[in-house]
Specification:
The chain is of the alpha+beta class. The chain is about 25% helix and about 25% strand.
């Protein structure tokens, strides 16, 4: 029977099927002629030593054993055009995967999306980058596919306990993603590839009887006797349903405000805030790979760094090797940054959010806003950045060493952030305690990663949409809202996910719970 084996090889070996076969043959004392096929199950980089290695988990098929290449297929969907309807608010990963799961379960999803379809969004992304115009309904956060579609498509998650990660990855492959995402330790689709996949998912939902409504914003949730009755759109239309999945993402502030006005229980939650740091990719390569030149056999190096600073966690977030920084405001009068990489990760710069964990007591100046105190804290920083950058989508920026020394940078070199930068002392953007932690933290980061603390690194502020500042509480057994029956808070916007994979898993779980409720 096939033999599973863990091995460590040089990068140039890992990319050559024959060299891998020769290496395996030597390890198990078998001629390569006896090895029929080697299937790579998992691949990761070990850069802890000066000599970099690639870890491989392989399955070895010997002569005489049948090798059947894995075939990833979509589930056997049935048409649900006349089935019971479930409203899904939001067409991000939580909403789309909830819709697919509902179809698989024989229920009809009706997706309500405030933004445009995945192609239509591009004009609005161009407008914010080049003309500094923010469309409140179509931007990097809002629109088909959600925030991840045009800000990277990272599929790595630590949330293995939340559900079946492999199932989500296999669905992505069935919709056109590279099978490599099933193998890589940190799978990534890329902003240039993900839009077509998202479009294919939507077309499949419609093909099997689901409905998708773009440029339609929910303005009210109809409730009677603490049970949902449906929704009202900004066009004045009412859509009835006894089950609603609320999958609006972490930036749908109007939904939080709607719930608060209707006295539907929500609560403030901690999130993290900071800056987006951009380095030359060659510098990060030299630090991580301990070499002057990365070569052709290694990918652009990522990094992950965590430090406790003054009793707070400070850490890298959404690191983008070979990537760019994007403007992610969702309303005029604010500046927000995020980062993304194309599938090849072949840009000249690397960027990462460097953020600090907040505590509920940090919201004290905004306590009059109740459950929305964290949201108002977040808004205040984004608005301050907008004013400091000249009331445009330019971003406050500072060289990293200058920031640690409280010195305004005399000039800022061109960065990957297309709208442009304004030289600002970054301490003006954040409350004093956060600026102090950031300064100390970057100094400590420089000790952990020699060369990281440099004036060749440019800080862009703020990185403020790491997760939702609000949680919409739900019953852990039924996933319904703790107060309103038939309302299923879902994904990042509800505080129950932290990325594409975990949001997709949560969407599927909510769909399964609705099907279970209807069966009962």
């Amino acid at each position: 029977m096939p033999k599973e084996l863990l091995l460590q090889v040089a990068p140039e070996v890992a990319l050559n099927e024959m060299l891998v076969k020769e290496h395996v043959g030597k390890l198990i004392h078998t001629s390569t002629a006896e090895i029929k096929q080697i299937s790579i199950l998992k691949r990761s980089i070990d850069a802890r030593q000066k000599s970099i290695k690639i870890n491989l988990k392989v399955l070895i098929y010997f002569a005489g054993e049948e090798y059947i290449a894995p075939k990833i297929q979509l589930p056997d969907y049935k048409n649900v055009a006349t089935a019971q309807e479930v409203i899904i608010v939001g067409a991000g990963p939580a909403g789309l995967f909830a819709a697919l799961q509902l179809i698989e379960l024989g229920l009809k999803p009706i997706i309500i999306e405030r933004g445009k379809d995945v192609r239509g969004r591009r004009r609005d992304l161009k407008a914010i980058n080049l003309e500094h115009i923010v469309n409140e309904d179509s931007n990097y956060c809002f629109g088909e596919g959600g925030a991840g579609t045009y800000s990277d498509g990272k599929l790595y998650t630590r949330s293995k306990k939340r559900g079946d990660v492999t199932r989500i990855l296999e669905l992505f492959v069935a919709f056109g993603a590279s099978p490599d995402i099933l193998v890589e330790a940190h799978p990534h689709i890329g902003t240039n590839k993900l839009p077509q996949i998202i479009q294919d998912i939507r077309e499949k939902i419609i093909e099997f009887g689901g409905q998708v409504m773009f440029e339609t914003r929910v303005t009210d949730i109809l409730i009677k006797n603490n049970e949902v009755q449906g929704i009202v759109t900004h066009k004045g239309d009412t859509i009835s349903a006894s089950n609603i999945i609320l999958a609006t993402g972490h930036s749908a502030r109007d939904i939080y405000e709607l719930l608060d006005r209707k006295n539907i229980f929500i609560e403030a939650k901690p999130f993290a805030i900071g800056v987006r740091a951009e380095h030359p990719q060659t510098l990060i390569d030299s630090i991580q790979y301990s070499c002057d030149y990365r070569g052709d056999f290694l990918p652009p190096a990522p990094y992950s760094i965590v430090k406790q600073v003054n009793g707070r966690g400070m850490y890298s977030f959404c690191m983008c090797p070979g990537g760019v920084i994007a403007p992610c405001a969702t309303s005029p009068g604010e500046v927000v940054t995020n980062g993304w990489s194309p599938s090849k990760r072949d840009q000249a710069t690397a960027n990462s959010g460097i953020v600090i964990e907040l505590k509920l007591e940090d919201y004290k100046p905004y306590e009059k806003f109740g459950a929305l105190a964290g949201l108002e804290f977040q808004k205040s920083i984004e608005r301050k950045a907008w004013h400091l950058a000249g009331e445009t989508q330019k971003v406050p920026a500072q060289r990293m060493v200058d920031f640690t020394q409280n010195k305004v940078s005399s000039e800022i070199p061109k960065t990957s952030y297309v709208p442009g930068t304004t030289s600002v002392e970054m301490g003006q953007v954040f409350p004093g305690f956060l600026s102090q932690i950031l300064r100390e933290g970057f100094t400590q980061f420089g000790k952990l990663m020699k060369g990281y603390l440099t004036n060749d690194a440019i800080l862009h502020a703020p990185e403020s949409r790491t997760s939702s500042p609000v949680r919409i509480p739900r019953n852990p057994d039924t996933l319904e809202h703790v107060q309103i029956k038939g309302l299923y808070p879902c994904g990042e916007g509800a505080g129950y996910a932290g990325g594409i994979i975990s949001a997709a898993i949560d969407g599927e779980k909510c769909a399964l719970m609705i099907a279970e409720r209807l069966r009962k």
